[in-house]
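Q: Could you fold this chain for me?
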Amino acid sequence: MSTASPTSQTEPVPSITSDPRYRAARRLITSGRSADGAIEMLATLVEEARSKYGEDSIDAAAVYFEYGNSLFRAVEKRKAGEMEIMMDDEPTTTRGPTPEEKSAAAEASEKRAATSQDKSDAQGNDAVVKASMDNAPSAPTKANQKDITDEELALELMENSFAIYDQYYSEAFDEEGNEKADAEVSDTAGGKSLVPWVEEQLPRVLGGIGDVLSSLGRHPDAVDAYTRKARHREDALRDLSDKKDGKDVEEIGMDFLRARRLLCEANILVAEALLRCPRGQDAVLSETGDVLVQADELMDYAQGYYDQARDELQETVYIMGRMAPRTADSVPEEVSREFAMEKENVCFCAQMLGGVGNMLAERDEEEEKIVGPDAKKPRVD
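A: Sure. Below is the predicted structure, expressed as structure tokens.
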């Protein structure tokens, strides 16, 4: 299988991603301005992508996710504003990150990751936003769906996107797990496979789905989405490790550091979602009714994912320390800037981990009050 490293400029991407409106909308989303035109532009692009490429095409899937993401980010921003007003007169307490804060952290991480690409799109974006808002109809995909909230629509769009990506990815490999020749792949760009690009999008879409499910209070379903995201991140890191060929980690480059940090973030999200599941109840998937985690095992699983995330963060910081000398004056400015952005991402990851650690400590204290210190179930390492 190919490595799920960040898609380079030379690898094929869906045609729709070159559309100025798509690029402008992405820039608005990553800057926290979904409501400033991104939603309207993407609503128009959804219909155009369906008409031009087909409703089950990779191009349509790319717009489905961005449209859903823009709707959700706008909702989260509105909720955060309302919560800030409500909490003005309330005392501060130690707590883990709220879904809104987690979403904001993910958005900030994505913003920093997209900075270098977005710089080339900065010119002309304002004109594209204005023209699209002037000519865009009201969200066409929502027009025929009454009594559906923006969060529910965002979830539907993201799930449609994932289904298309997942099918494409599954069909791109033969029974032995080897990638087929480009001619055998159902959907290509410029005669080349889109597998590397889809491979990168799958965990991103699963993370978006998990965020929406968590916001909707469907925490067991969020655990499922985040767990699948973590598996993709683990596969990507394993692929990079297999291609190491005896080289030092600093020789592999920023991809290895980024892959470790992304796996750490995914494990943190799983642990947090487990801690948000209803206490004293099995974690049950809403659609199938399957028990994901039994009630008496929730805390152990959460602790386990937290421990994995902590170990990954420690390794990430160690690798970052070994790579630091390469970002001194002797290296290109672009490399130093990329390292600085990744360092900031790692700091956000540490904050997320600390929040979940606080949640675990609070749960332990509450359990101790209920059952007593001697009766509390010991943690299994």
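A (continued): Residues 1-6, 112-140 have pLDDT under 50 and may be disordered.
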